[in-house]
Write a structure and sequence with these properties.
Largest sheet: 2 strands, antiparallel
CATH architecture of one domain: Up-down Bundle
Distance between the termini: 68 Å
Strand order of the largest sheet: 1-2
CATH topology of one domain: Four Helix Bundle (Hemerythrin (Met), subunit A)
Number of helices: 13
Strand content: under 5%
Length: 290
């Protein structure tokens, strides 16, 4: 747990010594803040509940973050609760504020526990804050890492996938590692950085540009060559070769009033015509389409 400074310790002691509010006084202060934005009333209401903030923040001390920062984030949640609290409802302010304080602290932990953001959904957030407890229970005090069956049990209990549990378990089992961290190179006797061993499987920039240019050129060649086809040949070829969802020979035959074998013959003839004109007009197009 991060250390609390001397000033912070004095604040904690003062907050813990603050007097409790009676129900009627608490309601009156909340009403004054809600109706008239009385900042003195807000200060008294918040100060009286700072011990609640400190208590909730202490439950998350094992995440290794500054206790003072978590208390500060909890105070933000406390003020949010004060802004939303309805004094006329038959509920104590502390009961209402607990959810907002805990949510604010948890959000701070998720933002700062790792440089890789996690827990973006409600289920993943629940997984993050409960995995350690569930893992310890399933491991029954052993130091061995839980296995696939335990991952499935936790996934079912929390309502996430087994893969999400396995990934979160791996993240919680080891600290972040910088891509610039050195790795000893046994061959050269020197050291390299982890980032040097990452492989990018995407095409090189010059390959991407070349493929784009070639695709545009082939599309232009094909568009000009289609002019040699008659209306029926063009319709069949578009339905059979030039659209994502290909139409069957039988359906085309029914639409055109001919047999599916006749459709096949027209399709083959159209392909031969296209190939011939492409070879004559664009010698580089040989093999590009057919």
């Amino acid at each position: 747990m991060g250390e609390v400074s001397g000033v912070g310790r004095q604040f904690v002691r003062a907050a813990m010594d603050a007097p409790f509010l009676e129900r009627d006084e608490e309601k009156l202060l909340a009403q004054r803040w809600k109706d008239g934005k009385d900042e003195v009333a807000l200060h008294r209401l918040a100060y009286a509940h700072m011990r609640l903030v400190i208590s909730i923040a202490s439950r998350f001390r094992h995440y290794g973050l500054s206790m003072a920062d978590m208390i500060q984030e909890g105070h933000v949640g406390l003020l949010e609760a004060a802004a939303r609290f309805e004094p006329d409802r038959d509920v104590r302010f502390s009961t209402y504020a607990t959810w907002w304080i805990r949510a604010s602290i948890q959000d701070y932990i998720l933002r700062n526990w790792s440089i890789v953001r996690g827990g973006t959904s409600s289920a993943q957030k629940t997984l993050f804050f409960n995995l350690r407890r569930l893992r310890a229970r399933l491991a029954q005090g052993q130091n061995e890492q839980i296995g696939d069956e335990a991952h499935k049990t936790i996934a079912l209990a929390i309502g996430v996938s087994r893969e999400d549990v396995a990934l979160m378990d791996a993240r919680l089992s080891a600290p972040d590692t910088s891509l610039n961290a050195p790795i000893a190179d046994s061959d050269s006797g020197g050291s390299s950085e982890r980032i040097e061993f990452l492989v990018d499987s995407s095409p090189l920039p010059d390959e991407s540009v070349s493929e784009t240019i070639d695709s545009e050129r082939r599309a232009e060649w094909l568009d000009h060559a289609l002019d040699v086809l008659n209306e029926r040949e063009l319709r069949i070829l578009q339905a059979r070769r030039l659209q994502e969802n290909q139409v069957t020979l039988e359906l085309l035959g029914d639409d055109l009033g001919i047999s599916k074998e006749r459709v096949r013959q027209i399709e083959n003839r159209a392909l031969e015509k296209l190939k011939r004109v492409l070879v004559e007009r664009y010698p580089k197009a040989v093999g590009a389409f057919i």
